[in-house]
Structure prediction request, 679 residues.
Amino acid sequence: MFIDFFYKLRGVGLPVSPTAFLTLHRAMSGGLVNSLEDFYTASRCILIKSERYFDLFDQVFAHHFEGAEMPDPKGIELDEMARAMLDAWLQHSGELSRLLGMDEKALKQLTPEQLLDYFKERLKEQTEAHHGGAKWIGTGGTSPVGHSGYHPGGLRVGGISRRQSAVKVALERRYKDYSLEGPLTQALMGEALKRLRHMVPAGPKDRLNVEATIYQTTKNAGEIEIVFDRALKDKLKVILAVDNGGWSMDPYIPLVQTLFDYARSQFKDLKTYFFHNTIYDTLWGDPARFRKAQRIEEFTRLDPETRLVIVGDASMAPYELLATDGSIYAEERSGRASIECLNFLAETFQRSVWLNPKPAAVWDYTRSIIAIRKVFPMFEFTIDGLEQAVAHLMKK
Amino acid sequence: MTPKTETNRFAGASRYVLDEELAKIVNISMALEMPLLLKGEPGTGKTMLAHAIAEALGMPLTVLNVKSSMKLVEALYQYDTLTRLNDSRFADSKRDVSRIEDYIRMGKIGQAFTAETRTVLLIDEIDKADTDFQDDMLDVLDQMEFDIIEIDKTVAARHRPVIIITSNAKKDLSDPFLGRCNFHHIAFPEPDMMRRIVAVHFPGVDRDLLENSITAFYRMRQIDGVEKRPATRELINWIRALQSDPDFKPKQLGKGELPYLGVLFKKSQDHQRAREAVSRRRL
Prediction:
């Protein structure tokens, strides 16, 4: 029963296991499910294990049992972006229409719904023709907005307000929240990272050391002498900073995902930040890099024993690294060159590494890599490189 | 399958407002004898649910508060080496020193397994512990039994307890673990539901106070940039604070005078922000 439904759920990428499906049947044969509502509740609580998937589940359910439109994962993404654009439009209509190369008056005629549809259409074009071409935004090409490769060819939207940056984020590349899914090589990576531990005796002396107690007791002619120890605890703190912007990191996304998944499950004290190309005064706590800013100065308050791991290809135009206003984002230009910020980080955290997914053989051909290697010890983002990086991080 | 009688169906308790969906899920999990994993914002009543089930079904409740350093063994049983050592030295207790079994004490899970009647076992905030903790627990939940290594004995559950597990979702739980649980996410209650919840906690509460405080509460949840938004628990404490103030009149809330913000916002930054937002709105 409901085999179709099961495969439909799997078809849209919901992680539904056969065991859970059998459990659902057990629930049904137990007389617990007497109506469609019951079935909805039962199937959701048994099959779906995270609230992240509730929405998608609802849509599949509606499709299967009521013939509603099948969800298009891409569509959801577009919806959100189009909505962000609408928000921005309501705030600064002039700016946005200029960026879109559209007449402001023409756009003003439209109702919000029409506007949403319009934005969605534009975004769809964008998804289909991504690189080059004469579309309105993309990497390279003849568009009024967008960026070509390393540095901003056209106009980057300046930071007038927070809303404004929402558009920019919507217009930029599809962001990938690295945490959502990961490939299977996690075990391999786990092996390499397992040694990244910092065991120290911590907490109250509450562990009975049986051997020492017996020894001391016998020494004491049978008079009990109890010896307590502190428990060993992993006190390792890790900061993981990931370059998630720009297409240059795209080929390495599966790799970074794996690291991310592993790190999240393994390290108790892990902070994750994101940046694009290189680090200026701020790191971002959210993958979209516009909501949770973290000034790097504040890192001085953290334990200097914290391990800093930066993941990025370190490939950019040299001025992005060396010029005082090198950032491709207007609001990030603070008068401090990125290389200074990197130096600052390297001084704050004595044990830091830079993992570069590019093969070491080509490092010498990129000037920004050469410059960054002088600041951070750089390792290849491979299993071997990871092992070396871990050894470096654990060095006394 | 076991026939269901009305006595072991859960339909709500005196201090807990239950939505129908959740009641169904609880009943399904009980019938399938599977643990129910609850997620949701802090303060949405995850822990309260277990208390409510225990009350409604008249079962004893065993609470295992998970701590970050906890090992699973501690939750199962403890081998009291120290007492044994002491007994062997002084030999004045009734326990038999050569029988290790006398020195095994049951932990919370062990207690729930060995209890005379079916119990409700609440495993609170499981996400606090290591992933090892969850992994080790898989077998215990699956087989409903565990081994005491020291005496080579297997303890099997006499009655499968009703297991409620809560998680604040700081970390994702491991997939194999999730596979053995049913899952529900408690969403933040809508204002309507919230009125009922408040009414259950404060029977005969002043209508003005109820309406005004709930409106103000939902408005305050909208304040931007607050790290820990106030939840049901905070609202209930807030109303309690407002009620106990003899000078307070519910009309004040409508005018934007919001006393005791410290009850709602627990972080100093949040508190600051809320105060600023409140004073700005009044001007």
